[in-house]
Automatic annotation (TrEMBL):
GO biological process: regulation of mitochondrial mRNA stability
InterPro entries, sorted: FAST_kinase, FAST_Leu-rich
Organism: Equus caballus (Horse)
Signal peptide: none
Protein name (record): FAST kinase domains 2
Domain FAST kinase leucine-rich stretches: 438-510
Length: 643
């Protein structure tokens, strides 16, 4: 054996005796690394060492590879044994207890030098205090920086892991800004030279950062307005797909919130499907009500009914833990899921009404919109909201109350006290109304057929005057809607009606926009003008197209129930009435409403038969057709008494 290899093997045998072969060393894989790890000097080739003794531990091999450089001669020197270099590799691939002693001893036996290692009891403390890099947090960044550009400047000076914290900090800062300032700062962010560098760093670190950092980063990226079709967003969505099984309850909540705001695309659809699977598997393990509601809101209206039922049952089990905010939010959650749970909504309505005072306007609007979308009617809830607004009427803006009244009209709910207060307010401030408000107010009051006992005339005069004052601003459809609403309330403003009846306006209504709806409104207008004493002869002579037959609602269940109750032939379906009205079912009963009279073919009286008869014979014929034989004597007496 040569003189060069002999000393090395001897030192290696001596060193291997210091490492216990039975010691268990835990290595953290790269994909699940801790946030305090450093990566700048890591190289996968450092793991490929083949010439060392098998008893030497893997972490020691990595340290030995970077720490020792052999020279020609009888001794070797150390290179790169500073504590920072050792920390980098030790934190990544070595157990925390094993480290180089900064003051190693050199013991000489036969002219050779030997390195002595020992394990310090307080090595973790020394590493933590002296060489551990200070981690970057989004909270610290958002406190130290005043703009999005400041965050990017901080990143460009000294990039730190994980890069998701920079995006989270920028979103935290952006939330504190006004809308105009936010738009300006976002434009500066996109033009900043370090922005593209940060995006690239985020994509490179996506697979190795913690799952919560990844999802909070994705949430911030989306909220900052980075387009969804960019490589950054699509890469993050793809990585989340690969790591979705790592999500805990907090991560699932963030993921649900992110997907809720994103447009459908391939990666979003795949993630939504994966979230549905996780929701189905882990629904009974969810502890936080907020997480449950976020998942319910995210799964979508097209989710399987079985999953919706399971989430509904979980929510019912958690009712005792619902806060006021949870109860208020449940309306929006169920509307987003497209699932009307009457029991759940009833319980939440009780909590909302019981704590209605101080409820923000935005939440009231959200609740009413959700009730409209779900077709959920709860008069106690509607009355509680309307009573609260009427009690605190002076603190609300006119536009806010109008918005609430529009939603109440959609729900078919009329609150007399609130509508009277609003009517008085309109009489005093009709001059400040814009075109959209005028049309909406007229529609609400005509649709709900509301009249005040004292101020109806003043209200109609004020609204007619406001409408006349803005005729030049009205489109043809708005003019039709406003005039039709006033006519239904028996008010016919001359100037507005004359403008509406012009040929060019009528022609525009019959050829553009929602033609079917316009035709229906024009028929209503023509009927109202016929009943009015004013000389509006033009409206009567309008050549309007016929209305299409109204779609018949599905009443199969009601028809089946009536057949079971009354029998076939005892009721008529879809009975057409004048002026394009119809009723779903007609049941004939006696005057005491104690007996149902059957329908038969003999109940159709042909006109040609009547024309052939004299008047006396026609009366006798109709009498026998209308009255039964048992009722003929009574009918004769009644007929004689009324003639």
């Amino acid at each position: 054996m040569s003189n060069r290899t002999g000393p090395f093997l001897w030192n290696l045998r001596q060193f291997s005796t210091l490492i216990p072969t039975s010691r268990t060393v835990r290595q953290y894989p790269l994909g699940l690394c801790r946030p305090q790890m450093a990566y700048s000097n890591w190289n996968p080739r450092n793991l490929l060492l083949n010439n060392f003794d098998n008893r030497l531990q893997a972490p020691v091999r990595c340290l030995f590879q970077n720490a020792l450089v052999f020279k020609s001669g009888d001794d070797f020197q150390t290179k790169g044994t500073s504590s920072v270099t050792v920390l980098t590799l030790d934190r990544l691939l070595c157990p925390r207890g094993l480290s180089f002693d900064s003051k190693h001893s050199l013991i000489s036996d036969n002219g050779l030098k030997k390195i002595s290692f020992h394990q310090e009891a307080s090595s973790e403390d020394v590493l933590t205090k002296e060489t551990k890099p200070t981690p970057v947090t989004s909270r610290k960044l958002s406190q130290e920086c005043n703009s999005l550009s400041d965050v990017l400047d901080t990143f460009s000076r000294a990039p730190k892991f994980p890069s998701s914290n920079y995006f989270s900090a920028m979103w935290t800062i952006a939330k504190r800004m006004s809308n105009e300032q936010r738009r300006f700062e976002k434009q500066l962010m996109f033009n900043h030279p370090a922005f593209h560098q940060l995006c690239g760093q985020m994509m490179r670190e996506a697979k190795i950062m913690r799952c919560d950092h990844l999802l909070f980063g994705l949430h911030a990226v989306v909220k900052l307005g980075i387009p969804q079709n960019t490589l950054l967003v699509q890469t993050l969505l793809r990585v989340v797909q690969e790591r979705i099984n790592e999500c805990d309850e907090k991560c699932l909540s963030v993921l649900s919130t992110v997907l809720e705001t994103m447009e459908p695309c391939k990666n979003v659809d795949v993630l939504r499907a994966g979230l549905r699977i996780l929701a189905d598997q882990q629904v009974w393990k969810i502890e936080r009500v907020f997480t449950l509601q976020a998942m319910m809101k995210c799964i979508g209206k097209d989710a399987p009914m079985a999953l919706k039922r399971k989430l509904e049952m979980k929510a019912l089990r958690e009712l005792d833990r619902f806060s006021l905010l949870n109860s208020q939010r449940m309306f929006e959650v169920l509307a987003a899921m497209g699932h009307c749970s009457v029991v759940l909504l009833d319980e939440c309505s009780k909590m909302v009404v019981g704590n209605i005072h101080g409820c923000p306007f935005k939440i009231l609007i959200s609740i009413l919109q959700s009730c409209r979308d779900l077709r959920y009617r709860n008069l106690d809830l509607f009355k509680g909201i309307a009573d609260y607004v009427a009690t605190t009427f002076d603190v609300w803006k006119l536009k806010q109350v109008l918005f609430l009244l529009i939603l109440f009209e959609n729900l078919g709910f009329r609150h007399v006290g609130l509508m009277d207060l609003f009517m008085k307010k309109i009489v005093d401030e009709a001059g400040v109304l814009n075109v959209k408000s005028i049309v909406s107010i007229l529609h609400v009051y005509s649709s709900l057929n509301h009249f005040h006992t004292c101020q109806t005339r003043e209200f109609l005069e004020a609204m007619a005057g406001a409408l006349t004052g803005c005729l030049h601003q009205l489109s043809s459809e708005n003019l039709l809607n406003a005039v039709c609403s006033l006519c239904l309330m028996n008010r016919f403003p001359l100037a507005a009606v004359n403008q509406l009846l012009q040929k060019d306006v009528i022609g525009e209504l019959l050829t553009s926009g929602d033609v079917e709806r316009n035709v229906h409104k024009l028929h209503i207008l023509a009927a109202c003008l016929k009943l009015d004493d004013a000389p509006y002869h033009k409206a009567v002579d309008l050549a309007l197209p016929l209305l299409p037959p109204a779609p018949l609602p599905p009443n199969a269940k009601v028809a089946e129930a009536l057949s079971s109750l009354l029998g076939d032939g005892c009721f008529s379906k879809n009975v057409q009435l004048p002026h394009n009205y119809h009723i779903d079912f007609e049941i004939r009963m006696d005057t005491n409403r104690s007996q149902v009279l059957p329908f038969s073919d003999v109940d159709l009286v042909n006109n040609w038969e009547m024309e052939k008869l004299e008047m006396e014979d026609a009366v006798t014929f109709l009498k026998t057709e209308i009255y039964s034989t048992e009722a003929l004597p009574t009918a004769n007496a009644n007929l004689q008494s009324t003639c």
